[in-house]
Amino acid sequence: MKVNVQTPHFVADQKLINFIQKKMDKLEKFYDHIICADVFLKLENTSDRQNKIVEILLSVPGNELIVKKQAKSFEEGADSCAHSLERLLMRRKQKIRASA
């Protein structure tokens, strides 16, 4: 699966990009028709500790799934987004099976 990581206003290190790539590759176990994933990593200018936002737009045939999480670190946010996407993909797969 093609994963596009976009980081406006800062440069992400390769370790973080590889971590996100692994998380997105695991999603193919749940639904094998994923086209691509667009990952947006944003920093919010607040004094709050949870100032990192991870937003994932997953393209699947028919529509797009969007998940947005705020966390203390980008790794934690990406992990949380991946778990949410797993649930959404399993639900989508069950609906397709039920209609077939």
TrEMBL record:
Coiled coil location: none
Superkingdom: Bacteria
Signal peptide extent: none
Gene3D superfamilies xref list: Ribosome hibernation promotion factor-like
InterPro entries registered for this protein in UniProt: RHF-like, RHF/RaiA
Stated name of the protein: Putative sigma(54) modulation protein
Any matching Pfam family: Ribosomal_S30AE
